[in-house]
Amino acid sequence: MLTARKYRNRASKLVILSIGSRLKDNAFDLPVPCEIGHGSTLIQSAERKVRIHLPPAVSQANFRIAPLARPDFVERIFAARSAHLEAIGHFDRGLAVLASLPEKASRDRREVELQLARGLSLLTTKGFSSTEAVQSYARARDLCEKSGDSKQLFVALWNLWLTTAVRDIDAARPLSNQLLVLTKTGEHSALRLQAHHSAWFTRFIGGEPSAALSHCDEGRHLYNIDQHRSLASLYGGHDPGVCALHTGAFSTWLLGYPDKALASINGAVNLAERLGHPFSLAFALLYQVVLYLFRREPDVALRHAHEAEAFAVEQRLALLLDPNILRGRAFLAQEAVENALASVREVSLRGGNRLGFASPLPPGYRVRGARRCGGLRERRGSTG
Asked: I need a labelling partner for 186 at 20 to 30 A (CA). Which of 83, 221, 248, 378 fits?
């Protein structure tokens, strides 16, 4: 299995441009596979890197307007090495330029592209509860409804569903149902897959593991790695195939099939590594830790928790769950009281996980964990 550390070592280096910096040989190196447009020439080297020779439209002199011309181009360049913070800056500058232009259909189309790309980078770096991401997707939705652009409208609606789901799953349910209805009669497998994607998470968080697993199964049936690997760049920043596997793992666990759950979560990690997609891999690694905690294997869980956190920090990703929550539970299972308490205190200082997701860990964990730590202390004191 390719570990997160090996993944990091294998990934190609990307020269990150900032405004006013100089291009090195007017080219970038990107990890493969990748999809770059805008007239660039792709040359794969023996070192399994792709050298991108930038076209004249993205030269040193006019790089400032590249985000306005092709937001997907600059987003893929910066996202290739989790440089979403840099990408957000470029999107903001592009939107500022657009604001000075007269209103017309072509201007609105470009703004929709920028708002959707900006929203994705905000989700990845600031979390699924980012208010700025909500604003970007809401603006894109309004523009799409105005122009009648149904394809981009679906993308905006899906991401609005996601940002709603992390705050209020009941409010998100009608949005998920709407996505299912919109794709019920269509032949576009990617849209149907994403509708099921919304449904399996909504059902799982809503306490319906059987229904969630059914939607996961539908998603796995539709998913094709070659056709759908790019969907993460539009929908929530993570791969639907990976999500179907790790959500399916927890649904399977709750339905009483621990071995199938372990196989499913390991499949999620393997797929994320195969895709070479950092955010999806961070998802899978953290949920793998949770499943090992459920299996009462704290030593394995601790090892994976450290690796997952190091990977997420290096890639500058918003953490799905606070690793201190996971470590605290693992330490508690080992009866390492002081370490468990330190982890619980760290969670309180941080104020919870950055993505705003509902945690798979039981409600009230920190309170019960602290009480159990106190009980262990008393027991040790009476036997000392």
From this structure: 248
Report the distance separating Cα 183 and Cα 135, nearest Å.
Answer: 25
> Quick check: 214 and 175 in contact, CB under 8 A?
no
Query: How far apart, in whole angstroms, are the C-alpha atoms of residue 112 and residue 119?
Result: 10
Q: Which residue has the tokens 């790790």?
A: 246
Question: 44 falls in which pLDDT band (50, 70, 90)?
Answer: very low
- Give Cα separations from 213 to 13, 95, 194 (angstroms): 38, 40, 15
What is the CA angle 372-378-380, rounded to 5?
A: 105
Q: Distance (Å, rounded) from C-alpha 120 to C-alpha 128? A: 9
Answer yes or no: is pLDDT of 294 > 70. Answer: yes
Enumerate the β-bridge partners of residue 29. 51
Count CA atoms within 13 Å of residue 66 on its CB side: 29
> Is residue 2 within 8 Å of residue 16, measured between CB atoms?
no
Within a 10 A sphere around the Cβ of 37, how many other Cβ atoms?
10
> Between 75 and 339, where is the model more confident?
339
Rounded CA-CA distance 183/195 in Å is 7
- Residue 191 has a pLDDT of 95
Mean pLDDT across the stretch 71-77? Answer: 49
Phi, psi angles (nearest 5°) of residue 48: 60, 40
Residue type present at position 207: G
pLDDT recorded at residue 170: 94
SS3 186: coil
Averaged pLDDT for residues 293-303? 93
Phi, psi of 51 (to 5 degrees): -95, 125
Give pLDDT, residue 207: 94
| pLDDT reported for residue 91 | 87
Higher pLDDT, 8 or 190: 190
Determine whether 275 is exposed, middle or buried from the number of CB atoms within 10 Å of its CB (0-12, 13-18, 19+).
middle
Asked if 191 contacts 154 with a C-beta cutoff of 8 angstroms, the reply is: yes
Q: How far apart are CA 152 and CA 149, in angstroms?
A: 6
What's the pLDDT at 339? 81
Residue with tokens 């493969």: 32
